[in-house]
């Protein structure tokens, strides 16, 4: 007997909602991925064509996050279960 999670994932895939839900998840898991401190100085705004736009409160934090972009992208994609984020745009 197949588990409910597997059935739900198949249904979402069949009706074309699996990928949009993954993209939306990238915004909701942001604080889990970056932690409380970074989350307090950033706000994920939107995901457009693989680019996650994130508002940053200061240039100092923006510069710090540039050094961690690849790591953050990797962690976001792992948390979302697939490649959803290709780039971070820090605004």
Order of helices and strands: HHHEEHHE
Spans of at least 5 consecutive residues whose pLDDT stays below 50 are none
Count of discrete domains: 1
Largest sheet: 3 strands, mixed
Number of helices: 5
Query: According to CATH, what is the class?
Result: Alpha Beta
Strand content: 15-25%
Quote the average pLDDT: 85
Count all strands and give the number: 3
Q: Any idea what the CATH architecture is?
A: 2-Layer Sandwich
Q: Helicity level, as a percent range?
A: 55-70%
Looking at the structure, what is the overall shape?
elongated
Span of the ends, CA to CA: 48 Å
**Classification by helices and strands:** alpha+beta
Topology:
Blueprint: H1 4-14, H2 18-28, H3 30-39, E1 42-48, E2 51-56, H4 59-67, H5 69-80, E3 87-90
Parallel strand pairs: 2-3
Antiparallel strand pairs: 1-2
Helix pairs in contact: 2-5
Q: Can you characterise this structure?
A:
By secondary structure, the chain is α+β, with helices and mostly antiparallel strands. The protein has 5 helices and 3 strands, in the order αααββααβ. A 3-stranded mixed β-sheet has the order 1-2-3. The longest helix has 12 residues, at 69-80. It is elongated, with a radius of gyration of 15 Å. The mean pLDDT is 85.
Task: Please describe the structure with a list of short key phrases separated by commas or semicolons.
91 residues; alpha+beta; GMP Synthetase, Chain A, domain 3; three-stranded mixed beta sheet
Summed up:
The protein has 91 residues and is α+β, with helices and mostly antiparallel strands. The chain has helices at 4-14, 18-28, 30-39, 59-67, 69-80; strands at residues 42-48, 51-56, 87-90.
């Amino acid at each position: 007997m197949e588990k409910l999670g597997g059935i739900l994932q198949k249904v979402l895939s069949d009706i074309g909602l699996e990928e949009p839900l993954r993209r939306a998840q990238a915004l909701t898991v942001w604080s889990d991925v970056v932690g409380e401190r970074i989350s307090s100085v950033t706000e994920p705004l939107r995901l457009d064509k693989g680019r996650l736009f994130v508002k940053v409160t200061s240039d100092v934090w923006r510069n710090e996050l540039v050094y961690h972009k690849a790591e953050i992208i990797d962690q976001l994609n792992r948390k979302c279960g697939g490649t959803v984020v290709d780039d971070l745009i820090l605004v």
